[in-house]
Structures are given as C-alpha cells and as structure tokens.
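lol ok so funny story. i was supposed to be doing the assay writeup but got distracted and ended up predicting the structure for this chain instead. priorities right. anyway since i did it might as well share w the group, maybe its usefull for someone
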Amino acid sequence: MLKVEILGSAEDDLEKIVRHYKSIDSKLARQFIDEFAIALKFIQYFPEAAPTIRKNARRVIIKTFPYIAIYRIKKNQIQIAAVFHQKRKQEN
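and the output, tada:
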C-alpha cells in the first residue's frame, strides 16, 4: 500500500467542497469525506487502475458525487494534486 500526500492545492479544493456540502447538510459533507476516503484507499491498493489523463497523471471518480481527484504516482507515494467538479475544465 502506497503512502498518500494531499498537496496544498488539493487540500484547498477539499475544504471548499466540504464547506459547500456542509452549508447544505452536515451529513452530506460527512458522506463526501467518506467517499473521498474510499477513493484514496482504492488508489493506494491499485494505483495504476485509474485511467491516465496526462503524462504521469491519473483520475479517480469520487462515487456518489460529481467530483474527481487527480493524482500522480511518485516512487512509493501517491500525490493528490487536485479535486474538482467533473464539469470544470482541467487546468494545465
């Protein structure tokens, strides 16, 4: 199982998403956090299972929610680079 590092920009993304869902319902925010944790476990155990979107970058869908996490595999570590809504255009 690989170690996961959530980069600062992805942490900011997560805080905004959780704050948004919390403003609707705290249970919804908790559900998002739980689904994100499940996605992290999946990529820890199967880091190369998610599709490649760019050189060295992969995406994993956060189930039940319209969000994806972008990550890179670096040596024995996974770096979460961004978490965003599927409708948002990816930045280079």
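The chain has one domain: 3-85. The chain is about 40% helix and 35% strand.
back to the writeup now i swear
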